[in-house]
Every structure is written in structure tokens, then in C-alpha cells.
Design a protein that fits this description.
Blueprint: H1 6-10, H2 19-25, H3 49-53, H4 69-93, H5 101-124, H6 130-154, H7 159-179, H8 187-214, H9 224-254, H10 261-287
């Protein structure tokens, strides 16, 4: 199962990526690198599947160098912490008053473009690069800091705390629902979310083009009543992305992904949380009467 997150989509933490064999080869007395002890086993992609099929309890062997939930949590905390620090610095160092807002917006747009490049480069690399991931987080934080300051200054001082609280609530709610198995990530769920996400992104891209070349609010998808509807849809899609990302992390731990892949998990989760935060910020801006 691959996530809708563009980072996870390229290199999902799944059994078909060979992480089960990585886990097996890290056991004491394991075969030399390049061999596959499960080559003749129909359950080779999951060395525990055969035991489960015959009713025996699935006992995962001790893993050396395999990703754990603690790794994912710590790397995610570092990545989000970087976003927070640079966003705070941008908030105080890049004023959004009438005299400086043009320069601050220019820096924010430049930072967003650099963050996008970092994200694209990382998504096509064969291995996660912590420096590149932290660079993405740093530049993304600059963009978020300026945008958040502008909304707080010109729209509502309560907008940023509300958007942060909303993002945290969605994260906690989806995590609880996923752990309780109220949300079941299946291929059908994945297909539905991907189709909805593609349609959403295409509509927003068309709306942006009309706004740039035609002026005003484009087709009106990000303002007024339609803006509220699409803001809610964007948040729901973000929640679905989180469920898919949780599934990817769970699979990575189950199939013994290398510890370094926890950086990739942190990267993907950060991207999803930024998506949700921006959707909340936009929705609050519309509800405050400033389209």
C-alpha cells in the first residue's frame, strides 16, 4: 500500500520493497548480503506470513538497525521543530507592515520555491538525506512564518492559534481512529483518496491560473461559499493523507525498514501537517470575511 503523500508514493514502506529481507539478513547468523533465504518460499516477501497462515503466533525476531516508532517520533519532532524555529524567526525578522510587506512576501515565495525543490529532489533520491529534509523544513518554516504573520496582522490575531489547534486536533483524531481501526486503509480507500486528491489539485491549479492571468479570485474556488467548501475538502483530504501515512509507517516497522527510513517518514508527515495547517489558515481567513 502506497501513501498519497508524494514522498511515500515513490518509496513506500511495503513488503515489495525488500525490507523483510533486510530484517532477516540482520539476524545473528543470517546469510551473506545478496542472498535470499526465502527464494523458494511462497511467503518470501514476509517471513512471518507462513506462521500466521498455520495459526502460530507471529513472533518477530530481534531486529538490528530496523526502524522503530521511537525513531519516527524523534525524527518527526526534529523536522517539525526546525519548521517551528524558522517560522518564528521569519515572523519577527520579516515584518508585514505596509512598508515591508512586498519584500517579506518576496522572501516567503522564494523560500517556498526552494522548499519545493528540496522536496522534489528528496522524493527522487534512492535514500533519505537528513540535511535535505531539514533544509526543506527550514525554508518551509520561513514561508509559513511570513504567511502566518500576515494573516494574524491583517485578518485575525486568533487565526494562527486556531489553525495550529485545528491541525493538532486532526492529527490526534486520525491517529486515535487509526489505532482503534475505525479507519481501515485498503486499496479501495487509497484509490478513492488519490482520485479525490488529483481532482482537488487540478481544480486549485486551474483556479490559480485564472487568478494570475484574469485577476480577482479566479474561478472562486478559494473564496466565498465555494472557498469554505473546498477548504473543508482540503482538510478532509489531509486527514486521509495522515491515515495513509500512518499505514506506511506501520508497514515500515512491521517489515523491518532500515532505521534511516524514519527520516523519510518524518518528511512525509511534516508535508501532510503543513498541508492541513495551510488549509485551516485559508478557511479561517475566509470565515473572517477576508478572501
Amino acid at each position: 500500500m502506497r501513501s498519497s503523500n508524494p514522498v511515500f508514493s515513490r518509496r513506500g514502506f511495503s513488503r515489495d520493497n525488500g525490507y523483510a529481507n533486510f530484517n532477516a539478513q540482520q539476524q545473528a547468523g543470517g546469510p551473506a548480503a545478496g542472498t535470499n533465504p526465502y527464494a523458494t518460499n511462497p511467503y518470501a516477501t514476509n517471513p512471518y506470513a507462513q506462521d500466521a497462515m498455520v495459526g502460530a503466533p507471529a513472533q518477530a525476531p530481534a531486529r538490528t538497525g530496523a526502524m522503530t516508532i521511537d525513531d519516527v517520533v524523534s525524527r518527526t519532532a526534529i523536522t517539525l521543530g526546525t519548521v517551528f524555529v524558522t517560522a518564528t524567526l521569519a515572523w519577527f525578522l520579516l515584518p508585514v507592515d505596509a512598508a515591508n510587506i512586498g519584500m517579506s512576501y518576496g522572501i516567503a515565495i522564494g523560500a517556498a520555491l526552494i522548499a519545493l525543490v528540496c522536496a522534489l529532489v528528496q522524493s527522487f533520491k534512492s535514500r533519505p538525506t537528513p540535511a535535505l529534509i531539514l533544509a526543506y523544513a527550514a525554508f518551509e518554516g520561513v514561508f509559513l512564518g511570513v504567511i502566518s504573520n500576515a494573516v494574524a496582522t491583517h485578518v485575525s490575531t486568533a487565526a494562527v492559534p486556531q489553525a495550529v489547534l485545528g491541525t493538532m486536533s486532526v492529527f490526534a483524531g486520525v491517529l486515535i481512529a487509526y489505532k482503534m481501526r475505525w479507519i481501515r486503509v485498503t486499496r479501495r480507500f487509497y484509490g478513492f483518496v488519490m482520485a479525490a486528491a488529483i481532482g482537488f489539485v487540478l481544480l486549485m491549479a486551474v483556479n490559480m491560473l485564472f487568478a494570475v492571468f484574469g485577476g480577482g479570485d479566479g474561478l472562486g474556488f478559494r473564496s466565498g461559499g465555494l472557498g469554505i467548501v473546498f477548504g473543508i475538502i482540503g482538510i478532509i483530504l489531509g486527514a486521509c493523507f495522515l491515515a495513509l501515512d500512518f499505514k506506511q509507517v506501520e508497514d515500515g516497522i512491521t517489515y523491518g525498514a532500515p532505521r534511516e527510513e524514519s527520516w523519510l517518514a518524518a518528511f512525509g508527515l511534516t508535508m501532510t501537517l503543513v498541508w492541513i495547517y495551510l488549509e485551516f489558515l485559508r478557511l479561517i481567513q475566509i470565515l473572517s470575511g477576508d478572501d
